[in-house]
Design goal:
245 residues, alpha+beta, globular
């Protein structure tokens, strides 16, 4: 009796049968040899980010039907190899950067507000508020976030209307990015601290109570400026009345 053996070397993509369902690979990796059988796996996948290599041990069984040698494969192990990709440092990009910058910026301005509210006449407070270092640091951080969050679509979202004016819906879509939102938060912190410093120094110069106004500048800057204007006007009026008497 003669036996014939059959071998297949066609470069076809492998189909992986997972729980009875055929899964087609996302991409053919290298040159694949296809056998007349299906490979079963416990959840294997070939995608752009993974290369799947299966080690198959072939057990030869004899079949006298048709005088052919039949190969019965037995998958022993499936090994995943991750493709090398770009390495992202959590400190330099992505949502983690936005979260850390948000926390750092908030914590950085709190000591200045604390000094202006609790010790407005202290020499340490006066020297601290004369310094431009916090504005330089936050300004550089804001510029970096702006660079990371800026996309070609940003201009279109800012000048969305036919009159080249912003629209509320487009601005809301722009701030859906965490990096853009973090840059806007740093922007607010810088402007609020600058306004609070102006209120504080104006109060020292004109001998006006500013602690309540500085406190409002931290959370509600326009209200803090408004309360300072009102406080200043009331103080001047009271002084004029006192001088007239």
């Amino acid at each position: 009796m003669s036996f014939s053996s059959s071998f297949y070397h066609s470069p076809l993509s492998i189909k992986i049968d997972h729980s009875g369902q055929a899964i087609k690979p996302c991409a053919t990796v290298g040159k694949v040899q296809n056998f007349p059988f299906s490979i079963r796996s416990n959840g294997a996948q070939i995608c752009n980010q993974r290369i799947l290599r299966s080690r198959v041990s072939v057990r030869r069984d004899w079949s006298f039907i048709g005088g052919a040698r039949v190969f019965n494969p037995k998958v022993t192990r499936l090994v995943h190899y991750a493709k090398g990709g770009r390495i992202h440092a959590s400190w330099f990009s992505g949502p983690q950067l936005a979260s850390r910058v948000f926390t750092f910026g908030t914590a950085a301005v709190l000591p200045f507000y604390t000094l202006m509210v609790l010790a407005p006449k202290s020499e340490l407070t006066k020297k601290s508020m004369e310094s431009s270092i916090p504005y330089l640091v936050l300004g550089v951080l804001y510029a970096y976030l702006l660079y990371l969050s800026w996309t070609p679509e940003t201009f279109r979202l800012i000048f969305a209307s036919k009159y080249l004016l912003p629209e509320l819906s487009s601005i809301g879509k722009m701030f859906s990015s965490e990096l853009t939102l973090a840059s806007a938060w740093i922007h607010l912190l810088v402007v609020d601290l600058f306004s609070a410093r102006h209120v504080f120094q104006d109060g020292l110069e004109n001998h006006i109570e500013t602690r309540h106004s500085v406190f409002f500048c931290l959370f509600f800057c326009p209200i803090g400026i408004l309360t300072h204007v009102i406080t200043k006007a009331m103080t001047k009026t009271t002084r004029k009345e006192g001088h007239s008497i």
